[in-house]
Amino acid sequence: MVHYRMRRAGLWLAAAIAMAGVATATVAQQDDAEKEIERYRAMINDPMANPGYLAVDRGEALWSSKRGARNVSLEACDLGEGPGKLDGAYAKLPRHFADADRVMDLEQRLIWCMQKLQELDTADVVKRRFGGPGVQSDMQDLVAFIANKSNGMKYQPQVSHPKEKEMLAVGEALFHRRAGVNDFSCTTCHGESGKRIRLQGLPNFSKAGKDAQETMGSWPTYRVSQSQLRTMQHRLWDCYRQMRHPIPEYGSDGITALTVYMVNMGAGGEITVPSIKR
Amino acid sequence: MMKTLAFTAALLLSSPALAQAPAGADPATVNRYVESMWAKVSDEWKARVKQDETQALCSEVRNNPSQAQFDAIVAREKLTVVFPADGKVLGDWKAGEKVANTGTGGQFSDTAETYKGGNCYACHQMAPKEVSYGTLGPSLTGYGKLKSFAPEEAKAAYAKIYNAQGVMACSQMPRFGHNRFLSEQQMKDVTAYLFDPESPVNK
C-alpha cells in the first residue's frame, strides 16, 4: 500500500514537473519576446536618432512662414496662453477659446488661425493632414514643433468652462460607445489594465493614472513602421479604422471630445515629445 | 459602478476648481457629436455607427447590465442564432486556422473583396505553438479536448461564435454571425479548429 502510494505520488510529481516544464518554457518564450520588444523600444528611444525632430524643425520654419492672402506668419496665433506664446500651450489643450467660442485641440486651433489670421485656403493643408510617401504634412510638423515646447511639463486638463465640461462628458460617452460590425468601443481594447492584442500591450484609458499619463505624455510620436510623425488625430483615426467604424472627420468635435477625455485620464502625465514608437 | 466612481474621482482630482463631476452627457448631445464626426461618409458607412438595442444598452450601462437587463439581452440575442441547415457545426480546422489568424476585412482601408478574418488570436490563446496571442479573452488552448469533444459542446461553441451575447450579455466578443461578419462556413471552420482532435489547438 505504502509502495503503491509512493509510486502514485511519484507519478503525480513527474506529471507536475513535466507540466511545470511546459509552463516554464511557454513563459520563458513569452518573456524573451517581451524582452526583445523592450530592447527594441529602448534602442529606438534615442532623441538624437529620432527623425521626429526633423518634423519639429520643419514645424518651426512653418510657424514663422508668411502665407495666405494676408501674407503673415502664424506667430500671432493664440494657442491659449496668449498670441505667439508656445511654452506650455500644448499641456493645456484641448481648451475653450473665447474668440471662437469652441473647445479646440491643437490641430483645430491651428486650422482656425490659418483661416482667420493668414486667410489661408486650408483645403490643401487638410488634404495633407496625414503624411505618407511623397506627402509632407504641415499639421504633423506644426504639432511636433508646438507640442515639443511643452516638454518637461505636465498635462493640465482644462475643465472649468461649461463647453469643456460638455466635451469631457461626451468624450467619456464616446469612449464607451459600442457600434459597428464588431460591436467595438474604445473600452474593448482600453478598458482593463495589463491586457494585450497579440503581443502588443494595451494602455488602460478607462481610469485616470499611469497608463493614460504615459501614453498622452508620449504623443505626438514618430512611428518607425510608418516613417511619419503622428498626432493623436491620426492615432484615433487608426483606432476607428481597426474598430471597423467609418473614417472620422479630421478635426471634428468627436475626436476632440475623446482627446479631452484622454488628457483628463492622463492629467499630470509628463510630456516628452516627439517620442518614438514602433 | 467602480468605473463610474473612478471616473468621478479622476474628474475631481484633475480639477480642484470643479466642485462636482458633471452629469453624464445626454444621449442627444452625444448623437450630435457622432453625426458630425461621420457627416461626410456614405449612408452605408453611416448605418454602421447606428447602434442596435443591445449596443446602445451595453454602452449605457458600461457593459455592466443589471440581472434583468442581462437576462433580456441573452434571451433576445440567443434567438438570432442560425445553425447550419444540416446541423453540422464542424468544418475544416485548417481553414479555421486561417480565420483565427487573420485580422483583415471590414476596415475603411480594406476593399469589399478583402478577406474577412475572425482574428481570434488578437484576443485568445489557442494552439500552444502560436506564441503571438492576445489576452483580452480567455485562453482556448485545448478547448475541444477539455470539453471531451462533445457534439453538444461544439454546437454551443458555434452558437457563441455566432452571437456571444446569446450566452453572455454585453460580452466584448463580436457577434460574428449576427453581424454577418463571418460566413457560416468560416464559423464552422473555426468551430472545427476548436474541436477537431487533429487541430493544433488540442495538441
Account of the 3D structure:
The complex is a heterodimer of chains A (278) and B (203). Chain A is 48% helix and 7% strand. Chain A has helices spanning 2-44, 52-63, 106-118, 123-127, 138-148, 162-175, 186-190, 210-216, 232-242, 253-265, and strands at 95-97, 102-104, 196-197, 200-201, 221-223, 228-230, 275-277. Chain A contains 10 helices and 7 strands. Residues 1-23 of chain A have low confidence and may be disordered. With 278 residues, chain A is mostly helical. In chain A, the strands form 3 sheets. In chain A, strands 6-5-7 form a 3-stranded mixed sheet. Chain B is mostly helical. Helix content of chain B is 43%, strand content 0%. Chain B is built from 9 helices and no strands. Chain B has helices spanning 2-14, 27-37, 43-48, 53-60, 67-78, 93-101, 143-146, 151-162, 184-195. In chain B, α6 packs across α9 and α8 (151-162) packs across α9. The longest helix of chain B is centred in the N-terminal third of the chain and has 13 residues, at 2-14. Chain B is globular. The N and C termini of chain B lie far apart (41 Å). At the A-B interface, α1, α6, α7, β3 and α9 of A face α1, α2, α3 and α4 of B.
